[in-house]
Amino acid sequence: MKIKILIFLLTFSTIKILATAQATDKIIINNKEYRLLNNPLEKYFKDNSEYDPIYGPHLSMFKEYRNKPIPVPFSTGNYRGYIATFKIENNNLILADLEVQNINSEKRNYISVYKQLFKNKKVILNYSGILVIPDGKLVEFSNFGYSSLYDHYKLITIKNDTIVREKELDKDEFIQFKINQFEEYKKTEAYKTKVKEYIKDWENDKKTELSKNNTKGMSKKEIAALRKEYAQPPSEDYIDGYFFVTKKIDYIIVDY
Q: What are the CA-CA distances from residue 13 to residues 80, 234, 246 (Å)?
């Protein structure tokens, strides 16, 4: 399995997929700003939906979109719609700023909304996970989420907002860490649930793609090619490869 995942990782960026590299959050360590390949606020907003900058009640420019999608989508380079800036301060992870795209501006520039959302409140993230911070040179670009590879990383393990471990890794050590983390993820109920959902979505796609309405007007050759594409369900190796690149599993804490 390890070899198959490694091969998939190295070749995934070369296949044509409907995906886009994502704008990262940021983290400030010793007054220096880095990219952060995690999104610690995702769980926070799930647990504290009233502070969600897009669908929460605080920002007036999103008021009419509380219960419906925003008609003009955010940049495909940032599906979150926001960029958070974090800080390591007194050995703790804190939220320093939060910016969203200004939907009232044609340029969709980012503006800070931290004070509008939180006033003078200290944000308790209750975050536990492994922060991934690339601090080396880009060695392999991938137009898919955060899957580009760098030659050096900082890893910081956080438990309830407090640093418990940190270490620097080179590219090969980082890939091994990602493999170990994924193997632990495979043991969870969350993984099993996601596999079932993936298979169900594939079955629904198959039904839609091979329906009379969809194949109407297609040539016999095109229909045969479509049937061949859906002849077999995706293999475990394929699903694992896809999950390996796409799933956010920073909450899976492993040694490194």
A: 22, 19, 12
Distance CA 206, CA 216 (A): 15
* CA gap 23, 82 in Å, rounded: 9
Whole-number Å distance between alpha carbons of 215 and 213 = 6
| Rounded distance between C-alpha atoms, residue 2 and residue 208, angstroms | 34
Angstrom CA distances, 98 to 3, 32, 40, 62, 139, stand at 39, 18, 12, 16, 29
Read off the tokens for 135.
């601090």
Alpha-carbon gap, residue 35 to 27, rounded angstroms: 6
Residue 11, SS3? helix
Give this prediction's pTM: 0.84
**Whole-number Å distance between alpha carbons of 152 and 97:** 26
Strands (E), the chain: 25-29, 32-36, 82-89, 92-101, 110-112, 129-134, 138-140, 149-150, 152-159, 162-170
- Tell me the C-alpha distance between 92 and 130, whole Å: 13
Cα–chain-centroid distance for residue 191?
Answer: 16
Q: CA 126, CA 128: separation in Å to the nearest integer?
A: 7
* pLDDT band of 22, cuts 50, 70, 90: confident
Cβ burial of 35 (10 Å; 0-12, 13-18, 19+) is middle
Hey, which residues does 156 pair with through a beta bridge?
A: 131, 166
pLDDT digits (tens, 9 = 90+) for 232-250: 999 998 899 889 888 999 9
Q: Distance between CA atoms of 249 and 256, rounded to whole angstroms?
A: 15
